[in-house]
Structure formats: C-alpha cells, structure tokens
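Good morning N.,

You mentioned wanting to compare the apo and holo forms, so I went ahead and generated the holo version with 2-phosphoglycolic acid. This is what I fed in:
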Amino acid sequence: MNKNLRKAVIAGNWKMNKTRPETLALINEIKPLAADAGCEVVVCVPFTNLETAVGAVKGTNIKVGAQNVHFEKSGAFTGEISADMLVEAGVDYVIIGHSERRRYFGETDETVNKRVKAALQAGLIPIMCVGELLWEREADITQEVVARQIKLDMAGFSSAEVKKTVIAYEPVWAIGTGKTATSEQAGEACGLIRSVIAKLHGKDTANAVTIQYGGSMNAQNAAELVAMPDVDGGLIGGASLKSADFGEIIKAASVK
Ligand code: PGA
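and this is what came out, ligand included:
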C-alpha cells in the first residue's frame, strides 16, 4: 500500500480547553512549526473559539476543525450546530463520533453515520472516529468491533464519499490514559480498516483514504506510529495543547 497516494493529516483535538486569547496564543505558536509541514495540519477547537481560530490561521497552511456537527440543516435541536453553520464560519474539518461523544452523549453508529453524511454534503471533511473498548481488546474482538463500526458508520456511502472521509482509529483504552497502542497494534488496526473498505469499495478507494491513529500520541512516540504503512497521521488530544510537542508530531508526519 503506497502511503504517497494519500494525505497524512495531523489534527489537534483540543476538546473542552482554551479561552479565546489562549486559542490565539497557541495558534500563533503553532504557525511557524507548521509552516514547512509535509502533512495537513488541523486544529479542532471548541465552537466558541472557531471564529478566533479561523481568523488566526488566515494566510497559513493550518486548517480549522470543529468537534461535532448535527445532521439536520436547521430546526428545533437545542444546543446543536449544523454543517452549514460551520461552513459559514470558515471551518474545513469536523471530528465526528469521538469516543467521548459516544460514551457521555449517547452518540451511536446510526447518528455518527448521519452526521458524517451531513458534513460531507456541506463540503466539510469529517474525521470519523472508531475504536474498541478495553474489554473488547482483552476479549480479542477488536477486529470484529472496528469492522462493524466502519460498516455501520459509513453505511450507504458512495466510494467518492468514503474517499473524502478521514478515519481516526482511536482505541478507547489509549485515549487520555498515557497508554499508547504499540505501532504494531496501530498499524494492524488501520490495515484492517483499509481492508474492510477495500472489500466494500475496491482497492483504489481503500488506498486513497486517510486513516489516522489517535490515543496518547506524543512527541516521543509519533515518529514510530506514523511510519507504519497504513497510519496516515494522527488525532492528538493532550499533546496538541503544547505547541512544542505538536510541532514535533507535525515534523514526524512530514518525513516522506
Ligand atoms: P489523547 O486524546 O491524545 O489525549 O489520548 C486523543 C483523542 O481523544 O482524540
């Protein structure tokens, strides 16, 4: 599988962190570190910081992402934000189906599927998250769980839609825990995802899809993880809040 066929994406998932002035400061620190990046660099900030972030990245190669999106165009959905609203705000990417959304906010494969579709229709690039729980890995059903999520979350997608979707493989036991999947585990799961897509949509589509690893990726382990043949960058939580660490990860993903 030729890594050069696809784009590596390094995306920071800031989660519920940073005020507006802090957003501006952190992006200003990231700018020089991302200037020569050989990968796509994205910062996914809280909704209230989107406007600040979009303004701050103007004229740079850094893209801005949101952390969720609703599937309806408008209506009585208190607390939700539509894909068109994100586009209007100047957003390019949106994280969908993060395990924290699935765990704390009742997100299901069905709602993830609808949200990813709505994002694609509006012209956003979804970063669709999948990954097994600790007990599922221990019960040796990781492959089955991840394959099922891919099938359900992308149900009804055309090959063109699959190609436009970034997939983040994030083993839930590795998120925010400091426990990183080994590069072999990450590579194996991302390879499995690619083979599931190949079966459903053919090899060309599978080869074109960006599949990231996420879960305690940091300045020390990034190089080994992103060097795996099927790992195309990362979705980074904690380490994306420290510019120096995020810069090191960008560097690691820029090596051809
Ligand atoms: P982490 O988070 O890097 O802090 O483990 C990753 C994520 O939740 O996307």
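Residues 151 and 196 are 8 Å apart (CA to CA).

Happy to go through it together on a call whenever suits you.

Best,
F.
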